[in-house]
Design brief:
Chain A: This is Ubiquitin thioesterase. Chain A: The active site is at 95, 98 (nucleophile), 272. Chain A: It comes from Acanthosepion pharaonis. The complex is a heterodimer. Chain A has twelve helices and seven strands. Chain A is an alpha+beta fold. Chain A folds into two domains: 12-51; 56-276, 3 helical TM bundles of succinate and fumarate reductases (Up-down Bundle), CATH 1.20.1300. In chain A, strands 2-3-7-6-4-5 form a six-stranded mixed β-sheet. The longest helix of chain A has 21 residues, at 172-192. Chain B folds into two domains: 2-128, Ubiquitin Conjugating Enzyme; 151-206, no CATH class. Chain B has seven helices and five strands. In chain B, strands 1-2-3-4 form a four-stranded antiparallel β-sheet, covered by helices on one side. In chain B, 29% of the residues are buried. Classes of the chains: A alpha+beta, B alpha+beta. Chains A and B meet through strand 1, helix 2, helix 7 and helix 9 of A and helix 1, helix 2, helix 3, strand 5 and helix 7 of B. Strand 1 of chain A pairs antiparallel with strand 5 (143-144) of chain B, so a sheet runs across the interface.
Chain lengths: 277, 207
Amino acid sequence: MVVGGRGTVAPPALVSRFSPDMADFHYDPEKNYDEQTLEQQRHIEQEVASTQALVSERLSLNQLIKDYSMEDNIYQQKIQDLRSRYRDIRKTRGDGNCFYRAFGFAYLERLLHDKSDIPRFKEVVNQSKTDLVALGYPQFTLDDFFDTFLDVLSRVESSCTPEELFDTFNDQGVSDYLIVTWRLLVTCYLQRNGEFFANFLEGHRDIKEFCCQEVEPMNKECDHIHITALTSAVGIPVRVEYMDRGEGGLVNHHDFPECSKPAITLLYRPGHYDILY
Amino acid sequence: MKRLQKELQSLTKDPPPGLCVDIKSITKSMSEWIVDLEGASGTLYDGESFKLCFKFGPRYPFESPQVTFIGNNIPVHPHVYSNGHICLSILSDDWSPALSVQSICLSIISMLSSCREKKRPPDNGFYVKTAHKNPKKTKWWYHDDTFSFPFQHLFSLLPLSVYSVSFFANVLSLYFIPFMNLHSLSFSPYLHVFILFLHFLSAQQIC
């Protein structure tokens, strides 16, 4: 279990180095700045929430060109490379849940057009719930999330339109319930295969601690290990195109699991995932 | 609300040992509960009883509840301040919507049970004087319970030269991360950021 002490926080002092209106700021060790720091964090989160949809409309990849300066040769070249293989992008909100949101939307959208995978996927979800109960998770908290998840899945199976799916993912109440379920699917797979995944953890954490700190809490970002676990758990292969500052002008990709035929494709830019078409 | 009703039902029907929800304390909107807690037998808190106050915001279970010890008996513990505030990661950073009132109570009982010496946190005086009433307005720093002293002391043990070399090595590695092949990186960027962050903390004389 992680417990601990606390610290009087210095971030406002850090801010003063960058923000002109705080140039007169003097750190007073006798004062408690926690509230200001948290207020500032909330402010940033609100700004992100008010400017970015949870899931955007499908946009032309040409939009990406405007996101980077024309002098930024590395990125402009890579966007051209992407455009030779993809047409559109759908952006997700940068709130730490972007991988799950992008993955979930892209997969359910695919199911709208091809429902053949639904029975298999439902079985996987139900089995994971049984496994989580066996791992000691209380049934009644799981019910909340899995019921919502299976309900959305049933609607996709019967009568959902693409517009309704879009609205569901942009309704934060429902959308976040779906995120929790994806996170629970990951935690379940990681813990059931703890011996294998423990080899990839750094520091002193065991797999249970890792799951409690990096998988189950909302807004915790997805890393290689999460993606490996999720794609293996649900049997949905994904291709990730990595667009970073690396030289070469080409965007490299990685398939999870390796050598699979990807069902969905995501674009990774450092710290963020969007959907590619 | 539906979720809280379910939790209450499960807690009253089948309470884990040492836990008892005070039904009379629950407000109509269910936004405030008091839970009676007993120190586990064979631990330093054997025979003591405590009161935990839970306050739920409108975004529960997506935001953690406010949890504090109240009443005359605030446990004397290295992670419990005398104003009742508790330093426990699942109450803020590591909160997950899949946790519950019951799992919080069990974590707190386990935290108390593993205590080897009854004492207040070292910064209790300063914290209680300056803290907001709501513990969720505190920015908590967590470290693993197995560490016997805070990180700050760790760094003060390092000779200055080692310290600055490792500091610059970390800054450099951060600089190179964007140029490296992402596939081979696995989780190390986080480690570097974390180490840098620790250096920052120790430089600020906090923690």
